[in-house]
Write a structure and sequence with these properties.
single chain, 383 residues, alpha/beta, Aspartate Aminotransferase, domain 2, binds 4'-deoxy-4'-aminopyridoxal-5'-phosphate, transferase, AON_synthase_class-II, pyridoxal phosphate binding, PyrdxlP-dep_Trfase
Length: 383
C-alpha cells in the first residue's frame, strides 16, 4: 500500500465508522452565546468556565500589552524573547501555588509533551490513569519510557503496577479533573502511593485551576497535595491560552537546559503575558464567578435528574450526558442545535468505544434561564 493509499484508507475508514470530525467556524462569541454559520446558539461547549475570556479588564489588558510590547516576543526565551514581564509572571504563579518555580509554555499540550520528553529515559516507566488526556498519552507514546495505564481513579490498580520491578525511574501521571468525564482524581492516595515507591507525580490540572480550591488554586490545593510537577493551563478558566509547569528549583534548572520545547520555540507574546497577569488577578479575586459557576452546576444537576438521560457522576463544570451509541449522540447534539443550544458530541477515539456522550460544559456566564433552555431541549429530545 502506498503512503497516499494509506492516508485515503484511514480517512475512508473513519468516515465509514461515522467518526468523521467536522470543524464549525465561529463568527462571533459574547457572554454565553456563540454565532456559527449565521445562527446564534447558547454555548454549552466551551471551557471558559468563569467567563473571563470576554471580561473587559482582560481584553483591555491584552490591547494595552500589544501597544506597549508589540505583537510578538520576537525570539525564543533563550535568545531575546524572555521579558521581565515573563520572569515576574512566573514568580507570581510560583508564589501563588506554593512552588519554587514556574515555567511558561505556549499550550498545555506543549507543556505535557515537553516535560515528559525531557525527563523520561530508556528503562523508566510511566504509570498513568487510563483516561489521561491525549497530550499526555502522545507524550508517553513518543518517549523511550514504558507506559502502563491503571484503571481510572483506582489507586489499588496503581499500587499493583508500582509493585512490579523497574530498573529506572517511575512517573505517575493523572489529572485534577478529567476532561471528558468531569470527575476528580483521588490525589491524596495517588501522592501517597507514588512517594511510597519513590516515584514522581505529575498532575495536569487544566480543568481545576481557577475553578477549585481557595482563591482558584486548583485541585491539588483543594486536596492539599503538592505533586512534583503540576501543569496548569490558561485556555480554560483563565480565558486566554498558554500553560505553566510548577516544580522545584532543581527541576526548573534542568528543564531550562534540556527541554527542547522551551529552547527552540518562540516565546509567548509579552502582550499575552500582560493579559495573563490580569487574568490571574481576576481568578485570585474571582470567588463571585466561582460561586456562580457552582450554583449553575448544582442547578443543572438538580433539574437534570428529572430527565430520562444518564448524567455522569461529576461535580465539575463538565457535565457529560452518557449515551453510548455514536450515531444517537450525534443525533441528540443535532436536535439540541435545532433548539438553539450548542453542545459537543464526543465519540471514540476521544472516549472509549461504547461511551459516546454529550459534553455539556457550564460557565459562570450562564444564567438560570439559559440552563432552563438546555434542560427543556434535552427533555424534549430524550423524552
Ligand atoms: N490537559 C488537559 C487535561 C486538557 O483537557 C487539555 C485541553 N483540552 C490540555 C491538557 C491541553 O491544553 P491546551 O489547550 O492549553 O493545549
Amino acid at each position: 500500500m502506498s503512503w497516499q493509499q494509506r492516508i485515503d484508507e484511514a480517512c475512508k475508514q473513519r468516515r465509514a465508522a461515522g467518526l468523521w470530525r467536522e470543524r464549525h467556524p465561529v463568527s462571533l462569541r459574547g457572554g454565553s452565546q456563540i454565532e456559527i454559520a449565521g445562527k446564534r446558539y447558547l454555548n454549552f461547549s466551551s471551557n471558559d468556565y468563569l467567563g473571563l475570556s470576554q471580561h473587559p479588564e482582560l481584553t483591555t489588558a491584552w490591547q494595552h500589552g500589544v501597544v506597549r510590547y508589540g505583537a510578538g516576543a520576537g525570539a525564543s526565551t533563550h535568545v531575546t524573547g524572555y521579558y521581565h514581564l515573563q520572569a515576574d509572571f512566573e514568580r507570581q504563579l510560583a508564589d501563588w501555588l506554593g512552588y519554587s518555580r514556574a515555567l511558561l509554555f505556549s499550550s498545555g499540550f506543549a507543556a505535557n509533551q515537553a516535560v515528559i520528553a525531557a525527563l523520561m529515559a530508556s528503562g523508566d516507566r510511566i504509570l498513568a490513569d487510563r483516561l489521561m488526556h491525549a497530550s499526555l498519552l502522545e507524550a508517553a507514546a513518543l518517549s523511550p519510557a514504558s507506559l502502563r495505564r491503571f484503571a481510572h481513579n483506582q489507586p489499588p490498580a496503581l499500587e499493583r503496577l508500582l509493585a512490579l520491578p523497574c530498573s529506572g525511574e517511575t512517573l505517575v501521571v493523572s489529572e485534577g479533573i478529567f476532561s471528558m468525564d468531569g470527575d476528580s482524581a483521588p490525589l491524596v492516595n495517588l501522592q501517597h502511593l507514588t512517594r511510597q515507591h519513590q516515584g514522581w507525580l505529575l498532575i495536569d490540572d487544566a480543568h481545576g485551576i481557577g475553578v477549585l480550591g481557595e482563591g482558584g488554586r486548583g485541585s491539588c490545593w483543594q486536596q492539599q497535595i503538592q505533586p512534583d510537577l503540576l501543569v496548569v493551563t490558561f485556555g480554560k478558566a483563565f480565558g486566554v491560552s498558554g500553560a505553566a509547569v510548577l516544580c522545584s528549583q532543581a527541576l526548573a534548572e534542568y528543564l531550562l537546559q534540556f527541554c527542547r520545547h522551551l529552547i527552540y520555540s518562540t516565546a509567548m507574546p509579552p502582550a499575552q503575558i500582560y493579559a495573563l497577569q490580569t487574568a490571574l488577578k481576576l481568578v485570585q479575586h474571582g470567588d463571585e464567578y466561582r460561586q456562580r459557576l457552582q450554583h449553575n452546576i448544582r442547578y443543572f444537576r438538580q433539574q437534570a435528574t428529572r430527565l430520562p438521560g444518564r448524567l455522569m457522576d461529576s461535580d465539575s463544570a463538565i457535565q457529560p450526558w452518557l449515551i453510548g451509541d455514536d450515531t444517537a449522540t450525534l443525533a441528540l447534539a443535532a436536535a439540541l442545535r435545532e433548539r438553539g443550544c450548542w453542545v459537543g458530541a464526543i465519540r471514540p477515539p476521544t472516549v472509549p468505544a461504547g461511551s459516546a456522550r454529550l459534553r455539556i460544559t457550564l460557565s459562570a456566564a450562564h444564567g438560570e434561564r439559559e440552563i432552563d433552555c438546555l434542560l427543556e431541549a434535552l427533555g424534549d429530545a430524550t423524552g
